[in-house]
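[Discussion] Sanity-checking designs against the backbone

I'm trying to build intuition for which residues belong where. Below is a structure token string of 295 positions. I'd appreciate it if someone posts a full sequence so I can compare it with mine line by line.
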């Protein structure tokens, strides 16, 4: 990596853990890093640190890149054990516009992978906006492979269907059920949705047929405004009307049309296509990428 060493020295690039940075430098690195991005990601300090907590991201293992004393890039990292393997998630890699295309992204990826090696990571994961071809090529050069296509869907549904038989539980309880899918995009895992809700669904014989993980959002008048749907898994035959009955259960048969948004729905999940049949439209597409790391 001689070229990277020369680049690092010529630009005076150095890295600090977030624990070593001022709050102002961290927020500057994030907001400049995602300036002009495909979706708006600008954050206040409160929003940023709430996200760190909610998604289990590590101050100790996330990095800010400096050119001298100027923060110019950032990478956020989190760690979990998923299916028995220590797994990392790249929760955002951003580079200030004037530093893009100059090799800083390579330095940032190398620094992140060094952190993963020190932490004994076996599987590294991330998501990238489908149109961000430059970033996807960069990740592929570092050994990441595309494993799935993901979509954000949005739809407004007028629900008058009878709620399906279900049991409401806490998100923390989901992983105790044998049918829970553990290996999903990071933000859809129960650990990232602790402030949400979950339901288990049953057929007419009280056999489990699926589950959901979601957040309901209320307006200032105390009315249900929208639902963020992180998981909706059906492992029985998907009958006509089942999806609408499930959505009615989530909204508790609310009489007003409700906005739903799915978070990183997999195109390999049949539910995704059923939601599109109900009029849900794609707002954003991503790819899930995975790198297996030899120990």
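Best answer:
Here's mine. Compare freely.
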């Amino acid at each position: 990596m001689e070229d990277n060493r020369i680049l690092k020295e010529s630009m005076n690039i150095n890295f600090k853990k977030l624990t070593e940075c001022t709050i102002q430098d961290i927020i500057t690195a994030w907001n400049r890093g995602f300036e002009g991005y495909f979706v708006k990601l600008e954050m206040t300090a409160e929003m940023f640190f709430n996200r760190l907590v909610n998604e289990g991201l590590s101050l100790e293992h996330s990095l800010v890149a400096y050119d001298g004393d100027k923060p110019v890039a950032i990478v956020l990292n989190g760690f979990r054990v998923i299916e028995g393997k220590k797994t990392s998630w790249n929760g955002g890699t951003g580079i200030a516009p004037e530093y893009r295309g100059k090799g800083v992204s390579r330095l940032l990826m190398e620094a992140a992978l060094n952190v993963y090696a020190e932490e004994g990571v076996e599987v590294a994961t991330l998501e990238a906006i489908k149109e961000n071809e430059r970033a996807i090529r960069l990740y592929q050069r570092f050994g990441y492979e595309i494993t799935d296509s993901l979509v954000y869907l949005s739809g407004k549904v007028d629900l008058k269907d009878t709620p399906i038989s279900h049991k409401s539980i806490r998100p923390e309880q989901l992983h105790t059920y044998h049918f829970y899918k553990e290996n999903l995009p990071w933000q859809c895992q129960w650990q990232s949705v602790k402030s949400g809700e979950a339901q288990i669904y049953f057929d007419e014989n009280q056999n489990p047929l699926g589950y959901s993980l979601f957040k309901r959002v209320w307006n200032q008048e105390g009315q249900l405004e929208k639902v963020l749907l992180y998981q909706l898994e059906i492992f029985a035959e998907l009958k006509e009307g089942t999806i609408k009955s499930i959505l009615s259960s989530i909204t508790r048969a609310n009489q007003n049309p409700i906005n739903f948004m799915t978070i990183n729905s997999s195109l390999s999940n049949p539910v995704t296509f059923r939601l599109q049949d109900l009029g849900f439209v794609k707002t954003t597409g991503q790819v899930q990428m995975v790198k297996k790391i030899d120990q």
